[in-house]
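S.,

Sequence below, as promised.
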Amino acid sequence: MTLALGACGDNNKGDAKKSAGVLSDYYYSIWQAPSPDWEVRKVRPGNENDVTVEAQVVTKTLTKRIMERSRMEQMEIARMACPDYSAKIWEKIEKEQSVGVVLSGSAGHIINALCKRP
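The prediction came back faster than expected:
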C-alpha cells in the first residue's frame, strides 16, 4: 500500500513537471502582461500536484501602489498573472492541479494567490 501511494505521488510530480513545461511555453509565447512593468520570472512544479508561477512587478511605483491596497485587492492583482479563465491552456493542465502565483515587487514578496480555473 505504501508503494502505491509513493508511485501515485511520483505520477503527480510528473504531471506537475509536464504542466509547468506547458505553462512555461504559454507564458513565453502567448501571455500578455497587464503592463510592461510585469514579468514572469519562472514557472516551476511544486511539492505535490501544483505549479507555481513566479511573477514580479519591476518598478518601485507600481510596487508601492499594489502594497497600498488591501490583501484581497492584492490577490486579485496577483491573479492578473494567471492564464485567462477561458484560455485553451487549461485544457492541457490536469483538473486536480492547482496553479498559484507568487507575486513579488521591487522590494520583495507581495502576496500569493491561486489562479481560478474553468
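Residues 1-10 have pLDDT under 50 and may be disordered.

Coffee later?
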